[in-house]
Amino acid sequence: MSNLKILPNEKNVIVDSEQVVFNPIYAKPGPVGKAFGVGRTTVYNWLKSYEQDNLGIDGLYLDLTPGLTLINIQKLEEFLKKKHKKWL
Predict the structure, then answer these.
(1) Degrees, nearest 5: CA angle 29-36-26
(2) Which of 22, 42, 44, 76 has its CA 20 to 30 A from that of 68?
(3) Where are the domains of the chain?
(4) Which helix (H) or strand (E) holds 33?
């Protein structure tokens, strides 16, 4: 067995905060609207639609306070895919 040591170099060391990338789990309605290219009102309409029929998806959003709603982004995508063309 050999003692393999990996020395620090430009490829394996983070030197700038822009090198750190992660996918957020929850977001407020405003940023969700920007990410999906719609307004905040449309996002709230989606949440109202979810309350009427959740299409089998539990835990789409959290209402923590009257002014703080957090939306699970992955579950929102699932909900919108299931809702797609249901109005036809």
Answers:
(1) 45
(2) 22
(3) 24-82
(4) helix 29-36
Cβ density class 25-60: b for 16+ within 10 Å, e for less: eebebeebbeeeeeeeeebeebbeebeeeeeebeeb
Distance, in Å, from the CA atom of 75 to the CA atom of 78, rounded to the nearest integer, reads 5
Phi, psi angles (nearest 5°) of residue 62: -120, 125
pLDDT tens sequence across 30-51: 999 999 999 999 999 999 999 9
The three-class DSSP label of residue 20 is coil
Q: Give the residue carrying structure tokens 């709603």.
A: 69
The candidate with the shortest Cα–Cα distance to 50, out of 82, 16, 17, is: 82
72-82 pLDDT tens trace: 999 999 999 99
